[in-house]
Design a protein that fits this description.
single chain; alpha+beta; 6-stranded antiparallel sheet; 15 helices; binds adenosine monophosphate; binds magnesium ion
Length: about 475
């Protein structure tokens, strides 16, 4: 059998200002280390010999039908506008329309320099590639919109980071790679015809029912306002919510120094480059609103009636905080077993979270244990849980099937940061057993798995990872 990818490309048909045609740069000794059969089936990608697949997913061989290109975008990085970013270490091979009728991008990340590389080497090392592979697939299994991982290859080359590291390429799949920053670059440069073309393209691809730029803004708002509370509900911290890392589709994108919280604290930050805590766990909803405001500013540039557009866009953006709060409340109600909406639910949830923060309670294990009888053991002072639980148990009597609600809302397994680090360290030494095991367990995060209790445990003192690095 030969590897076959049924490309059907649309981005490559857009004006030349949108991208630079760029073939991936071949690597010395590609070796396929991971391939996602389930996703391949959805995409209609048929597998070939391992070595052929390694050649393709390393970029050594451009498959038939691919039209490789690097996409242009800009964006606000930590609040400061950078007028030109773009795919500096990635190429879009092309798009496929899956068995589910959905069009998706197939992109190589770590595939060499492009016209947008700036000072970068265009490469990625194995650590961030495997981190993105495992975490994005775990997010998918948790039911959270996300880009996905189709393949990972080692390149047989050395990449210089904190030291010499093994190079790797990730094959990433996304409903598109359109970002807030894709709109910003044309708006900032006054390329209004291109901005209009991009807006039409985004609407046709993602929100065909949307009627014009302001309707697109509404649709993106709704998608982001649904997404961020889902992150919050599993303790996920994206780490770098720059506008170039904010996808129009509403998928989680660009897993860099991201992590899941172990013990709960609202101010948790992992990213070593986020020194001010801009992208801390509890700031994420506010940042999503800020990012949407940047999209609004960009979209407005194409409107004939600017004053009217500013008014409408302001209204759209201003509605987002309430929407985030409503979705957050729905997610966290479910996490404590509630479906009915009652006054006082917010206070009940907030009170639990406050006590969890004061008692170093593990986020995932505490919520999971609400369905059993060991939640109090998660608290340094179990009495702090008991006094909360009195009100909670009274509230539960007005619910039909809280046990089922709790079970469906609270996973047993998340990709804990120390396990991800241990997995990377093993892979660097050529041992992929932890990668395979972590992937298998995280594919069923809501099922207790008899032989995987160790993957539920928070880090022991010596295992705690305090910062995660970009790998750029
Ligand atoms: P990221 O941190 O992955 O969101 O990347 C931010 C910007 O830096 C994007 O334009 C990337 O393409 C670019 N970039 C990151 N790492 C590299 C690299 N090693 N070589 C070239 N460009 C890079
Ligand atoms: Mg990025």
């Amino acid at each position: 059998m030969t590897l076959m990818i049924p490309f059907d490309n649309s981005y490559a048909r857009l004006p030349g200002a949108f991208f630079a045609r760029q073939a991936p740069e071949p690597v010395r000794a590609p070796r396929l280390v991971a391939f996602n059969d389930d996703l391949a089936r959805v995409l209609g990608v048929s597998c070939g010999e391992a070595q052929d697949m390694a050649e393709v997913f390393a970029g050594n061989q451009v498959p038939q039908g691919a039209e490789p290109l690097a996409q242009l975008y800009s964006g606000h990085q930590f609040g400061t506008y950078n007028p030109q970013l773009g795919d500096g270490r990635a190429v879009l091979l092309g798009e496929v329309i899956g068995a589910d009728g959905v069009r998706r991008d197939i992109q190589l990340k770590g595939s060499g320099r492009t016209p947008f590389s700036r000072q970068g080497d265009g490469r990625a090392w194995l650590g961030p590639v495997l981190r993105e592979y495992v975490v994005s697939e775990a997010m998918h299994a948790l039911g959270i919109p996300t880009t996905r991982a189709l393949a990972a290859v080692e390149t047989g080359e050395v990449v210089l980071r904190e030291g010499p590291m093994p190079g790797a390429v990730l094959t990433r799949v996304a409903q598109s790679h359109l970002r807030v920053g894709t709109f910003q670059v044309f708006a900032a440069r006054g390329q209004i015809a291109d901005l209009r073309r991009l807006t039409e393209y985004a609407i046709a691809r993602h929100y065909p029912e949307a009627n014009g730029p302001m309707d697109l803004l509404r649709a993106v708002r709704d998608a982001q306002a649904a997404l961020i509370p889902q992150w919050m509900a599993v303790g996920f911290i994206h780490g770098v919510m720059n506008t170039d890392n904010c996808a129009i589709s509403g998928e989680t994108i660009d897993y860099g120094p991201c992590a899941f919280m172990d013990s709960y604290h609202p101010n948790t930050v992992y990213s070593s480059i986020d020194r001010m805590g801009r992208y801390a766990y509890s700031n994420q909803p506010e940042i999503a609103v800020w990012n949407l405001a940047q999209l609004a500013t960009a979209l407005i540039q194409q409107m004939e009636d600017k004053e009217g557009a500013v008014e409408e866009a302001t209204e759209i953006v201003h509605a987002m905080p309430d929407q985030l709060q409503r979705n957050w409340l729905m997610r966290f109600r479910a996490k404590i077993g509630l479906v009915r909406e009652e006054e006082g639910d917010v206070e009940l949830i907030s009170d639990l979270l406050t006590r969890m923060a004061q008692n170093q309670a593990d986020f995932t294990n505490t919520f999971r244990a609400l369905g059993g009888d060991a939640a109090r053991d998660q608290f340094t002072d179990p009495g702090a849980f008991d006094t909360w639980a009195e009100g909670w148990l009274a509230r539960l009597t007005r619910e039909d099937d809280p046990a089922a609600t709790l079970r469906a809302a609270n996973p047993a397994y998340i990709p804990r940061n120390h396990r991800v680090e241990q997995m990377i360290q093993a892979a660097v030494k050529g041992d992929y057993a932890p990668f395979d095991r972590l992937s298998a367990v995280l594919a069923r995060p809501f099922d207790d798995q008899a032989d995987a209790n160790d993957l539920k445990r928070p880090p022991a003192q010596g295992e705690v990872v305090h910062a995660t690095f970009c790998g750029t």
